[in-house]
Specification:
Helix 2 packs across helix 10, helix 3 crosses helix 12 and helix 13 (about 335-345) packs antiparallel against helix 15 (about 360-370). This protein has two domains: about 1-60 and about 280-375, Helicase, Ruva Protein, domain 3 (Orthogonal Bundle); about 65-280, 3-Layer(aba) Sandwich (Rossmann fold), CATH 3.40.50.300. It is of the alpha/beta class. The strands form four sheets. The protein has a five-stranded parallel beta sheet with strand order 2-5-8-1-9. A two-stranded antiparallel sheet has the order 3-4. Strand 6 (about 190) and strand 7 (about 195) form a beta hairpin. The protein is built from 15 helices and eleven strands. Belongs to the MoxR family. Keywords: ATP-binding, Nucleotide-binding. Pfam families: AAA_3 (PF07726), AAA_lid_2 (PF17863).
């Protein structure tokens, strides 16, 4: 049975409906009826029950673990209003050991969201304000000479934490941006030829402003591909903004999370147990084929100069498994793939310049792909 607590706030809820008219200069091709027929039943461990994508021999995710993570939303909601979809995305990233790029205009509680999440998870967090004069050693750490011992010792940088908030990451030059590549991919920092492991869990949550480009350095495609998810934080609705003002009028201080009643509701041990269960979520061959067909379709889109790489396909599978687990299932359905397509793939595609001039966006291209690729039944 699925859990409506999670399904109510999909991580892609800000995305436009699939196939929305007028969202793309290139309309979706008409699906071939011959390809939409039901796939034959698989055999063995992935045998499907009639009319479903449920394995015949699956498992039931732990309700206790899922409720512990679901309680995060209530705790974060004590300090942050109207960003439940982003909380869902961050929880998925934690389950998948992936990194997150948060995009939103200033003042939508990006920093507060990360601080509150780390408090509710009992995880250590550090914040780095990325600026044009920030050096790589300011992030990773560096060797410091000790005159008393006449030796060099390593001084850890802020990257040695559980949740690293890389604030306004696109305001620092590429040299400093690249200092995070090894940490994000290998979960270690190499200084003077010696690798130093980072704590577990380790998650980079980077923020950037989508409307201000003066004095910024766009992240290269290779680094964007290192982020598991790109989440957009919208401006709150009117009633949500009224609630924000009401809380501040009542004395809410965003620097005092304890005063707001935020407490720890789970910890790293429960998170590790949840990750182990997510790794057991099964995927039928038809669903694997559907995910591959989606990413291959982006490579053939006339609006894109760069489609989704195989790394993006594995990321889509990984996030879909976490979403299925949060929804209370031990198997992935095509709807899970659809639910995570936008946040997992939107930053892995590159538009052609002529498509941008026509008003095409990465979101609209993904809408077109999702509408065109036949769904296994």
């Amino acid at each position: 049975m699925t859990d409506p607590t999670w399904n109510q706030y999909r991580p892609d809820e800000q995305a436009r409906p699939v196939g929305d008219a007028g969202t793309s200069a290139h309309p979706a091709p008409t699906p071939d009826p011959a390809r939409t027929t039901s796939a034959p039943a698989a055999t063995g461990a992935h045998a499907l029950d009639a009319g479903t994508h449920a394995p015949a021999h699956g498992f039931t995710p732990s309700r206790e673990l899922r409720e512990g993570l679901a309680a995060l939303r209530a705790e974060v909601g004590k300090a942050v209003v109207g960003q439940d979809a982003a909380v869902t995305g961050l929880v998925i990233a934690l389950l998948c050991r992936g990194h997150v790029l948060l995009e939103g205009v200033p003042g939508v509680a990006k920093t507060l969201l990360v601080r509150t999440l780390s408090t509710a998870l009992q995880l250590d967090t550090k914040r780095v304000q990325f600026t044009p004069d920030l050096m790589p050693g300011d992030v990773t750490g560096s060797l410091v000479y000790d005159a008393r011992t006449a030796q060099f010792s390593f001084r850890e940088g802020p990257v040695f934490t559980n949740l690293l908030l890389a604030d306004e990451i696109n305001r620092t030059p590429p040299k400093t941006q690249a200092s995070l590549l090894e940490a994000m991919e290998e979960r270690q920092v190499s200084v003077d030829g010696q690798p130093r492991p980072l704590p577990d869990p380790f998650l980079v949550i980077a923020t950037q402003n989508p409307v201000e480009y003066e004095g910024t350095y766009a992240l290269p495609e290779a680094q964007l591909d290192r982020f598991l998810l790109k989440l957009t934080l919208p401006v709150p609705e009117r009633d949500q903004e009224i609630e924000v003002l009401r809380r501040h009028a009542a004395g809410f201080d965003p620097r005092d999370l304890a005063g707001a009643g935020v407490r720890a509701v789970t910890d790293a041990a429960q998170l590790a147990a949840a990750r182990a269960e997510v790794a057991r979520v099964q995927v039928a061959p038809e669903v694997l084929g559907y995910a591959v067909d989606l990413v291959r379709a982006t490579r053939q889109s006339p609006s894109l100069s760069l489609g989704v790489s195989p790394r993006g396909a594995t990321a889509l599978l990984t996030t879909a498994r976490a979403w299925a687990w949060l929804s209370g299932r031990g198997y992935v359905t095509p709807d899970d793939i659809k639910a995570l397509a936008h946040p997992t793939l939107r930053h892995r595609v590159q538009l052609r310049s002529e498509a941008e001039l026509e008003g095409v966006t990465a979101e609209s291209v993904l809408d077109t792909v999702l509408a065109a690729v036949p769904v296994p039944r």
